[in-house]
Amino acid sequence: MSVLNYFFGSKTAAAEDAKPAALQVNGLPLAKGMSLSQWLQNVRSNPLLDHRTTEALPETADVVIIGGGISGATTALALLQSQTPPKSIVMLEARELCSGATGRNAGHCKPDQVRGVAMWTRIYSRSTVARIPEVPEEVWNGAGTQGAPSRTLDVPVTDEVAEATAKIFEACKAAGGPTDKVEVITDKAEAVKRSRIKSACAVYAWDASTLYPWKLVAHVIKRCLSMGLNLQTWTPALSVAPSSSSPDQWTVTTERGTITTPTVVHCTNAYAGAILPEFAPVIQPRPHMCNRAVPPRAWSGSGALQNSYGVLLPNGALFSINPRCTADGVVLFGGSNPGQGELEKYVDEKPERRTCDGLSNFEPVTRPVREFTQNEFEGWGTEFAPGEGYDYSWSGIIGDTADGVPYVGPVPGKKGQWICAGHNGHGMARVFTCGPALAKLIQGAEWADINLPEVFQITEERLARLQAGEKNFKHRM
User: Which CATH class is domain 38-103+214-282+403-468?
Assistant: First the structure.
């Protein structure tokens, strides 16, 4: 299967089969098939969007990286900055630079200090659980290039959710997790005051960053280009196969020709199964929506939100909120809000929708955002001046893994192919360690030499176990 068909689904109807497959989405040009996020909307004049370092696609390269998001960018930079950098690296991006999951999130670099523990303790040992939420200094150093440090608040809004959150926090603490970095407020009145959310029952606060993810990737890519990276946008990889003419080499086939290389790095997250079919059963693409709101006067200026949020709702629902308090002040609402179920139903009607990020302004997801702000933010109101209010939303695709943690390392059974994918919605907080770690592995390091939890390592045993369905469940962000 080509990566393009995987991005946007195999065509099933006879009429659709008759349409040309190249750069098409439901019969429309590919550019019209993707929604523009807040981040992509505001960089339309940036030449990196459609940058091609060379007019022609190179015929050979020491390394080919598939994917131009944060995983591909950090891996490329680490390789180029190493003591023995590859002589040539080609990066293939199917569409515009950073137009996948990295360029579509809500702008958080928010490590999951607590919430994931409930799931991880069902699978892993206490010592392993303690390592998964770790936040090495590299995360803040990497995010700091284009980010603003802040406190992030996890806020349960019912007694039941608060009780469950407290139990998870204690489980994390018992497992040796980094709970000493988390400030806990359990007095309801104080929680309301701190969070500015009327129904707040508690607050869990820790350090995080809000950032402009596209500009972060552009910053890294500029450095890579200055060090010799060859970036080729609008060049979807269609397949990777053993070279017929060069032993121990791979042929990467694209719309614009082929590249022969000994090393292929897959940084396509939810779309990894397009070229690596063995990963299709164990990486579940999950569409999400992000809503943008221009706040009313009462919530602007000195009244603007100053923290990012995870608002914890019943039944596992969540609002992820980024107020962009050091920038334009718009408030971005992501996460699995109460409308996520309707989005899942919509997606399940046609399988190709699961990997299509062209959806915008999906009312079942936008409606809970309106209801939450109107009910929970004092003075937000229902009437807006021209230019205020809920003006736009866009879609993105999260890559959920079958056991809730990413796949990092050599692709089993395919010597010379490597993967960093399946970030379960937490890629911005993990890739600053995963990308450089993968680069070290590519250059000969052993797993014991890199600073990652062992459960991130992709092995033949782990892949076979997950394919068999032992731990096959859908991880929720």
Answer: alpha beta
